[in-house]
Structures are given as structure tokens and as C-alpha cells.
TrEMBL record:
This is Fibronectin type-III domain-containing protein. CDD domains: FN3 (cd00063). InterPro entries: ANKFN1 (IPR039269), FN3_dom (IPR003961), FN3_sf (IPR036116).
Amino acid sequence: MALEELPNVDSVGVSRSAFGAAKNGFVYRVTFDGAYLVSGRQSDLLVGDTTGCQAVQPPNRVLSFEGAHVTSGAPGFYPEVWEIASTESSGAKVLGGTFDLSIGFEGQWINTNPVVTATVAAGSRTAKTVGSMLGVVNRGDRVRIGGEEFTVHATAPFTDSELPLDSYHVRGVTVAAAIQVMDTALGNVQVSKTSNLVTTSVSFSSRIADGEQVQIDSKVFKVANVAPTSFTLDSLWTDDTTLHVTAFARKKATLSVNAEAAEMKRALSALPGVGAIDVSRIGPTKANGYRWYVTFQSLDSVRLRVDKKTGTTDFVDVYGVACVTCTVTASVVQDDTQTTTLAEIKGDYSANAVVASTEVGGVVQEVQTISTKASADNISGYFTVSFQSVGGAVINFDDTAADVRTKLQSLATIGRLNVTRSENSDFGATWTVTFLSNMGDLPLLVVTAKTLLKGTGVNVVVQEIVKGVDVALETIIDGLDPGQNYYVRAFARNENGYGTSTTDLQQRGRGALPLQTAVSTSPDPPGINGMWPLSGSQLELRLSNPVDHGDSVSKYLFEYAVGESFGKVATKKVFVYNSIENDIAGTFRLQYGDDVTSLLSVHTTASSLQSALNSLSSVRPRDLYVGK
């Protein structure tokens, strides 16, 4: 307790040795187990002196103190906490209305307006558009086609009918699909070097307001003024002049000024890239407002921002009247010990912190064969092949491996292939096709026409040689201890090696799950504390909290059965008898579990026995009937 009163100590655990472990004294072992000081080695040692203390007894004794590092802390992850505060400074009004919260410019996917559709050949980096994307998106913008995401290529040809992509479309799109963009995209703008005026083709006044932020290219600016066909930035555009670049608004969640913590958590969690969060609320405060504390459990650093509802110039009171003394602000919760005394804390792994590392492979490439066969050496002609309902590959009986690869890869549903050719014992050829970019267990290639393949008893057969297996997206980590906190990260690997980890991804604002988690098991069964009727058709049931084994209970499942459908009632017989007629007397007890009834006469009635058994704590009331 004494150590925790120091301003730069958040939490410690202390144990003391037996007397004499140090000369005529004790050894105190101090473990810094708080959120701050546990994270990383601290340069300061604990020191002590007797200044201001009472004189020790006997007078010839001198106290000395010495501190030493025993175990260095390992850097860990400490979540960033933001405080959102609503206040009214005059003390005469109460806040009302709503406010906007946002963390960034990433939006939800929506179709372009007007809708533009496209087809893409599997393995191609060019989308064939039905309608022009010029002026709808610009180079560097993100688009989604057929469930796969891309960036518009920086230099490749961009025309009314072709949209260049930065990477291959793996699956391809054979039936024209709508091109999707972010709903935070305001549209195309023009910017000039050393100018803060941004020219637009349409008005953005319904999407942004003075004082809000916009993102142009990768730069973020504050909007100083919004006009019908332009808006002004708070600083100059320092890059080159460009006539084609997209401006983005922040993705916002609108909340009431008295929103519950659960409401704020739901609204913020719906924003893209927020990851895992926790929200608490206190208030109303003395300033007629509330304070919400938002803990970002999977992001290293965020830019939470509060804005007035777009289209309004002031916050309002409970009557909807503009309130100049009403404010809502967002700021990082600061702690003196975190900023002045402690070593820097960042969510990362030290070199010696990794306890176990497991590589999960699992990718198996699909291999199929196409074989021509005949009963005589006179095969000629050709046949056609389709894949996933897309046909048109004409295979000649004597095509080389390169010919077959080129023809099959021309199908929109097939990506990259490796093909080899060999002669078989049935006077034909076998082409072995390995799928390099189509992942998983694939359907067979289909021979759609073979009437023009000639020969004695000729046939063409497709077989699966190796079943494809997609990359494993799930794995099991075993050997974990219940209740112990674990930090997990993942990497992806291709032929170029491993990329960055999920830790880096989360720190850039793309978090999905808390960096820290704990292994747990399913909870114990809850107890039924009470059950009573509420109405002619309702029954109330009250449960006791079960042991959750490391993970809070999130829901309960109730089941009930009706009448005779609930199994068969158990019947037990109790015999009290004597072989000598009319010669029985005395008392007895019955035991059920650990409970024992009161003394019962051998001549007790059925109702008395029923009452005695139902009075046992281990027997549910009214569950037992006794007949004679």
C-alpha cells in the first residue's frame, strides 16, 4: 500500500522473506504488476532511507536499504483509452441532440452511382467495364469487383471501357458484376500546388462542413470553408497540381448526447477498422454532461474525433435550441506515470518474449489430367473443354503442353496453370494440369464436345489426381493454461517470404481482435434459485451465476419439456415388513443423498412420508408423491 501511494507506481505485489534472509533483516520482493510498470525494464531502482522516521530501537542499530533488479519486465501491449466528454459550461442548460464520432476515412463498400458493371478474366489485371469509370474513381483509389479488392493502377491504361487493377483477379468475373467503391468518397477534385482552394464539380456541402476533416491522396486537412463548387483547406496543397484526385470524408457514427455505453460500443464497433473496443460511461456530471471511456483493445493508436452533426453549426440543448456553451470533446486519457517516468510502451514482442511459434501450411495445389485413348494408333481431330460453366478451349489431339496451357488459361474461370504432356499406353496423350492460382478442391474440367475427335474406339477422360486444399484459415494452439493471458499474432507467407504480422496491421488501424486473449473452458452449469408463476401462461426462472472458467458468460440456453414427454417418472418402493404377522413396531429414517429424514413410525401414513421426504433440501419441493 505504501508503494502504491507513490505517484509513479500503479500497482505492485509484495512478498517478504523469513527473518535473517538479509543480515538481521528481511528481503522484500516487489513485483510491478500494474498496466504500466510491468511493461519493459525500468531504469530506476527502489531505494529507501530513514529520513523523517522515528528512531530505531535499540539506538545502536542502523537500518540500511538496498534495491536490485531481479527480473526485467517484457514490453507488452497497453490499450489506448480515449475520453469523450460532454459539458455545458454555464450550468443553466442541459445538453440535447446528437454528435458525430469517427476514427478514419475508411468506409463501407457500395455500388457506384450510377452503377457501372465489369467482367474480369481470371488472372487478369484489367476489368472490362460496361460504362465508364473515368471521373468516378481515380488512380490510387480502392475498388471491389466480384468480392476481391484492388487499387486502381498508377500508370496502366485507363479508358472508358477498361479499368486497370494493381493485382491479378484470382477467380475472375464472368457475369458482369457491379464495381464497388467506398461510401466515404466525396468525388473527384482538382488541387493546385501552393494553393488551399479545392475545386469540385458538384457541391459537397451535404457531406462536409466547416471545421471537419477531409483526406486528399494520403494527406488529411481541416476544411476552412465549403462553397457550392469548391472548398478551402486550412493549409496549402504542397504537391503537384492535379485535375484528378479523390477526396474522402470521415466515416461517422451519430450518437445521442446521453447515449448509453452499450449504444456507443455498438455504433463505434460498426465503423470499419475499429477492431475490439470496450466502453464505459459515468454521469451525469456536474457539468450537466457525461464522460465515456473508450478502450481500443486491438489498435495501437487511433484518431478518434468528435464533430457536430453535419449541417449544424452548434450543439443544442434539450429543447433543440443552439447552445454555445455546450461542447463534446474527445482526447486521449493521459497519465503522468506513463508520460514522464516510464519506459516507452508499445504493443510489440521483444526478441525473447515469444514462447511458441507454429507454422501452418496446408496448401495443396489441385492436379487433374486430360487423357485421349483409343484401341488403335489412329487418333486425330480435336475436342473442347470448359471449366465452371465457361467453355471454348479447343484442344487438338497433338497439342503441346504449352498449347494446352495457353488455351485453358484463356478461359475466364482459370488463372495460372502448369501443364506437362506425356504419351500413354492407349495410343493417346495425357496432359497433366496443375492449378497454380485457383485454390482449394476444384470441380473437374469438363469435355463439352468430342464428336470431332476421331479414331478407333476413341475417348477423352478427365481425372482428379490430387485434390486441392486451400490455405488453412484456422489452427489450434494447444498446451495453454486456463486464466493465463496470451498475445497472439500471425504472418502470411508466399514464395517471396513472410510479410508483416497482424500486430503491424492492427497498429495501422485495421484491428479486428484484442491483441491479448486468455484460454478458457466452457462454464459450469448454473443453479436454479427460484421458479414461480407470473401469469396463467408465464413462469419466471432465476439462476445463480456459474463458474465461468476464464471467460464471462455471454448467454444462457433454456429448454423445457411438456407433460409426459419429459422422460419417465422414477418410482422407488419402501418395504417395512416382518415375517411374524402383527409383530412390527418402532421407527425408521430414510436417506436421500446427504440428507436424512426425521424419525418415522413404521405405521406412518403415505402423506406423512411424502411430507418428510419433500422437506429434504436435496429433494425439489412437490417433486415426490407417496402412495400406499
